[in-house]
Every structure is written in structure tokens, then in C-alpha cells.
Amino acid sequence: MQVAGLTRMSGCDWPGRLVATVFLQGCPWNCGYCHNPDLIPTRAPGRYAWGDVLEFLSARVGLLDGVVFSGGEPTRQLGLAAAISAVRDLGLGIGLHTAGAYPRRLAAVAGSVDWIGLDIKAEPEGYDDVIRTGGGDAAWRSLEVALASSADVEVRTTVHPGSAVDVLVLARRLRAAGVRHYALQRARAEGTREEFRADGVGWDERFAHLAESVADVGFDHFEVRSG
Ligand code: SF4
User: Fold this and answer.
1) Which one, out of 71, 90, 108, 188, has a CA that is 20 to 30 A from the CA of 200?
2) Domains of the chain and CATH, by start
3) pLDDT tens profile 158-176
4) How far apart are alpha carbons 165 and 115 in whole angstroms?
5) 0.85 exceeded by the pTM?
6) Is the CB of 34 under 6 A from ligand 1?
7) CA 71 to centroid of ligand 1, rounded, Å
8) CA distance readout (Å), 134 to 39, 68, 155
């Protein structure tokens, strides 16, 4: 496990739960809006030993509802299944943030996860423009894996003014695929690379209009995150 960071207490990484969040190094993709680009390099070593993190978590039993594994792309860590198992043994819930780059690895752990926050960035045919490399089909296979699992699933899409993704069409396709819980996230500039623009002329109005349109798609639960 390449553990790059640890948030000791968070109320927003797993909606409705108080959690610690473990950030794992490395992602095969390269999204322009990534707000953790330092976590993309796959060969960078971790900053924390997993054993120390587990010791910290065991001292928080009773204070936390669970642990979220985030990244980077946490499913690329070969030690993830064992780490999840160790945290479950403490009696803590398991949340997982993933962009779905490794559907078979997601399938291997999904049965041990209580909640999955899955980023779906575009329709399959528009994916490579967003992740700026190949391999986007994997995300939609991961969507099938997540929806077939026993975990609660939140699908989310990040939008920004320069995006070519038709988010309303995407949202309708996700609803048709069986997604019940959807979140629209407005990209933030904080933490992104210098060349990324999170704002633009008329973006406030366009984003508000988009959110209103997606609200009518008919998800059981729809959330807008603009901060
Ligand atoms: S998939 Fe997530 S972690 Fe990977 S580059 Fe994109 S935004 Fe960053």
C-alpha cells in the first residue's frame, strides 16, 4: 500500500458518515481538473506505513463510523483487499472512492465495501478526452460491477466550463443504466494545475441551468456540489 495521505476526520468524504480518509498514491489517468495531481505518479513512494495507519484507526474505533479509501485510484493497490479486511475486522465501515479504472479489481473488493463513490466522467465514447489517455471503457464496466454489488453507490460527475461532455445526455444514460444516486460536482480550482480554469464568463448561470436540467432526470437522490 502506497499511503500518500490521511485525513483523520472528515464529514464529507462519505456523505452522512464521520470517517477517516486514506489517500493512496498513483492513478493511470490524467484528468485536467484533477485536484490531487501529486497523487497521479504511480512510482512515487507512500508517505505513511500502512501498519501505522491501521494502528491509528484502531485507536479511533468508537469515534469514527468508517474509513474511506481514496486516491489517486485506490483499486490499483494490490494490498487494498487485505487493508479493507483489516479495517472491517476493527468494526469500521468501508467507503471507496474510485474512478473505475480497474473493474476486475473493483469486483474483487466490492463485496466488502459498504459505500462506493464512483466517478463517471463521460459517456464511454467521450472518455479519453477527459482522462487524456486511453482506457475509459473500464469505467463503464466498473459501473456495472458497482451497481451489481451490495454496496450503496453514488455516481458523480465533475463539470467545468471547458468540458465537451454533454452532462445532461450522460445523466440520462446513467439513469437508464440503473443509477439511483447521482451527484453533480462543480470543479474547483484549488489544488489543480496552473493551466486549469474552473471558472469562465457565464459559468455560474450555465452550471445552475445544468443542475436544474439534471434534477429533472429522475434520480432517487440528486445532489449538487458547488463548493
Ligand atoms: S481519475 Fe481522479 S485521481 Fe485520477 S487523474 Fe482523474 S481526477 Fe485525478
Assistant:
1) 71
2) 3-225 (3.20.20.70)
3) 999 999 999 999 999 999 9
4) 26
5) yes
6) yes
7) 8
8) 19, 27, 21
